[in-house]
Amino acid sequence: MSGEEEENAAELKIGDEFLKAKCLMNCEVAIILDHKYEQLQQTSDDPMNQVSQVFEKSLQYVKRFSRYKNPDAVRQVREILSRYQLAEFELCVLGNLCPETVEEAIAMVPSIKTRGRAHDDEAIEKMLNDLSLIKKFE
Amino acid sequence: MSSIEPFNRLVKLVARAFYDDITTKGDNQPKSGRSDNRGIAVVVLDALTRRQWVREEDLAKDLKLHSKQLRRTLRFLEEEKLVARDHRKETAKGAKIYSAAVAATADGQPFAKEGEEKIKLHTHSYCSLDYAQIYDVVRYRIHRMRKKLKDELECKNTVQEYICPNCQRRYNALDALRLVSLEDDSFHCENCNGELVAESDKLAAQEGGDGDDNARRRRREKLKDLLQKLEVQLKPLMEQINRVKDLDVPEFGTLQAWEARASAAGRAANGDSSSNDPNKSSQGYGGTPMPFLGDTKVEVAFSGAEGKQVDVKSETDSTPQKVLPPWMIKQGMNLTKEQRGEVKQESKMDGSSATGGLSDDKKSTVEDDKASLQDEYIRAYYAALLKKQQELDEAAKNQQESSNTPISDGLSGASSNRQVGMKSKREEVEGDDDVDWEEAPVAGTTSESFKVHDLNVEAEASAEDEDDIDWEEG
Amino acid sequence: MFFHIVLERNMQLHPRHFGRNLREHIISKLMKDVEGTCSGRHGFVVAITSVENIGKGLIRDGTGFVTFPVKYQCVVFRPFKGEILEAVVSMVNKMGFFAEAGPVQIFVSNHLIPDDMEFQSGDMPNYTTSDGSVKIQKDSEVRLKIIGTRVDATEIFCIGTIKDDFLGVINDPTTI
């Protein structure tokens, strides 16, 4: 019985609207929000007063949980992950959590192992290696 | 038509599995003694399997229920998405269109005497089973039950529930933000500020479990047990669902469409020979011709003149599964003898009970073994019933002819036929009894499953059920 | 998860704003109205990044106000059931702990904390393994899975679990 359409990110059921939308990794959000914050600083003496609490909390959060700080590295991460036929959402979960083993990667993004998708363990392993290399050379 | 019996069986199973203990009494009223009307939903659902669209007043009369009580039950069943209802203001003439439709489905001669028409409008309610929806709703319900138990079993994705020991108000983890207190570590009831207890903790305490591990293990075992019970007890129901999966769902359509179709079909079946027909022919509500005229197949229940009835029966006989149990044959013979002797056309009541008999027979063969266990008892019961019927027979014979149109009689309020009306009603009630008796084994097997069902719906449960509920939700 | 999406909104503007700075007025009003809000469907609107298009204004009958349909790009944060993310613990009590992931709050009940972690009360309430190797307290970073969301008009609240493989306190030396 599959009539029930329940949201479940593990099965990539996040609604069509978000499935097609562009996802952002924390490090990308950090760059965007930082940029916006700098703009505000130029026009206002007290920029923290200008932004919403949501903005403030998000900025703190993404700064704390960005695996890659350098904009070039961030670009590379997306570039590398894009080679693996991942959904946007999967790509960003991997980019955010940086799993170290294949097993961990599958636990974080169970949908990459669902049937009909060409991700064998070897491919996943290679992907994780590529990611860790960027981190090393950042 | 061919698919309606499996669906009726489905409805009957569902009624016994999930609506066994439903009472329409308010919570504050005592649920004991004579006021206990548990099982009423089963009776009403069973009765509806033998009807199509029916005016609720008529149904109430047939079931000898107070119309208020029936309405309350129907409203509940409507909320449960089992029953479709329609309400409309109608004149005496409007009511007649329905009567004509009923007469047509019963293959009685339509009683179409046009009385003086009152302009006065009355609101009448009608109801029928919504088979398509029932099928979906039941599957969904079972799916949810399974899912909930499995989730709990895996200890995953469970939303922790909290309960206030003072006022019994319930919360869950999603309310957490509102429940935190600044003074201490616990959650507090929004209502009485009592300290909330996590559901399973309470349970562990009840079980006298001290160690966390122990409680958890016991809980798992209980859940496993529950899940297994669910599978076993719902097996007949699941089998029936699978059986009807690829069948065409019986569809009565809206009340108006059904009326139009039924009347048209009735005319077609009667060969349009009746002199009564012109009176009601092609008169829709606005007097416009009905679009259904002509092309409608007889999708209607008891259209069979004698021959057709026999056909159906022999068909059922030919399949090995569908042997009539002895007590059932007795009933069938009794009815047909009665009818063959006296009249060509079956009265509505006889027709319906005969068909009901057939359906019951199919059902009982599936559980043949169980049925045979009860056979002895039923035979005895039936003997008594027969005796009673024979008494009534005498009276019936005299009036059989007029009993062809019992409904219309009731409507036109002709008092001369009162006795007949009563007689057929009596039969109806007996028919119900009979179904209940023979269903006893089913009710027996599913009698526990309402507990499982309770897990989903927060129904009032008797004290003995409480354990199960707690286990499930903790 | 953060998304970069395009949303639309009808902006009503008083005639006094009409003129050379109309566009600026519309955009600054849009930011004021939208940023920081939360809807069940799209989640928290964190920041507007660009305005794609401002449509033709429509004068509203009876008032001088004009409605402009505006298409804009923005960063939103929308948590999903089943999503795994990292969060900062904000409060610990015996019922479990609360954590924050950006704008959203997540509650992890003690039943969804691994069985081998026990609650310790005190100045710094925490959940600790018996050998003391793992500790969850305020400001700890945890990786958790969202198992439920509650949405109302202005808030999304989540419940989560750390009782699964690869969930729990983050053992990343760079973050401790």
TrEMBL record, chain A:
Q: Which residues form the RNA polymerase Rpb4/RPC9 core domain?
A: 16-138
Q: Which Gene3D superfamilies match?
A: 1.20.1250.40
Instruction: List the subcellular locations.
Output: Nucleus
Q: Which GO terms describe its biological process?
A: DNA-templated transcription initiation
What is a single cellular component term in the Gene Ontology annotation?
RNA polymerase complex
SMART domains the UniProt entry points to? RPOL4c
Task: State the Gene Ontology terms under molecular function.
Answer: nucleotide binding
Q: Which domain of life is it from?
A: Eukaryota
* Any Pfam family: RNA_pol_Rpb4
> Keywords on this record?
Nucleus
Q: Which family does it belong to?
A: Belongs to the eukaryotic RPB4 RNA polymerase subunit family.
Q: What is this protein called?
A: RNA polymerase Rpb4/RPC9 core domain-containing protein
Q: Which organism encodes this protein?
A: Citrus clementina
Automatic annotation (TrEMBL), chain B:
In residue numbers, the region (Disordered) covers 266-292, 307-370, 393-474
User: Where is this chain compositionally biased, Polar residues type?
Assistant: 397-419
Asked if the Swiss-Prot or TrEMBL record annotates the protein with the keyword Coiled coil, the reply is yes
Residue stretches of biased makeup (Basic and acidic residues): 337-349, 359-370
Q: Which family does it belong to?
A: Belongs to the TFIIE alpha subunit family.
**Record carries keyword Iron:** no
Please note every region of biased composition (Low complexity). Answer: 266-276
Full protein name: HTH TFE/IIEalpha-type domain-containing protein
- Domain HTH TFE/IIEalpha-type: start-end pairs: 7-139
**Which residues lie in coiled coils?**
220-247
* Keywords assigned by UniProt, alphabetized: Coiled coil, Transcription, Transcription regulation
Which lineage?
A: Eukaryota, Viridiplantae, Streptophyta, Embryophyta, Tracheophyta
GO annotation, cellular component aspect: transcription factor TFIIE complex
Give the GO terms filed under biological process for this record.
transcription initiation at RNA polymerase II promoter
Acidic residues composition bias: residue spans: 429-439, 461-474
TrEMBL record, chain C:
A GO BP annotation: positive regulation of nuclear-transcribed mRNA poly(A) tail shortening
Q: Which UniProt keywords apply?
A: DNA-directed RNA polymerase, Nucleus, Transcription
Q: Where is the S1 motif domain?
A: 79-156
User: Which Gene3D superfamilies does the record match to this protein?
Assistant: Nucleic acid-binding proteins (2.40.50.140), RNA polymerase Rpb7-like, N-terminal domain (3.30.1490.120)
Q: Where in the cell is it found?
A: Nucleus
For the keyword Nucleus, the answer is yes
GO CC terms on record? P-body; RNA polymerase II, core complex
Q: Which segment of the chain is annotated as a signal peptide?
A: none
Q: Annotated Gene Ontology MF terms?
A: single-stranded DNA binding; single-stranded RNA binding; translation initiation factor binding
Q: Where is the RNA polymerase Rpb7-like N-terminal domain?
A: 8-64
Functional note: DNA-dependent RNA polymerase which catalyzes the transcription of DNA into RNA using the four ribonucleoside triphosphates as substrates.
Family, according to the entry, reads as follows: Belongs to the eukaryotic RPB7/RPC8 RNA polymerase subunit family.
Q: What is this protein called?
A: DNA-directed RNA polymerase subunit
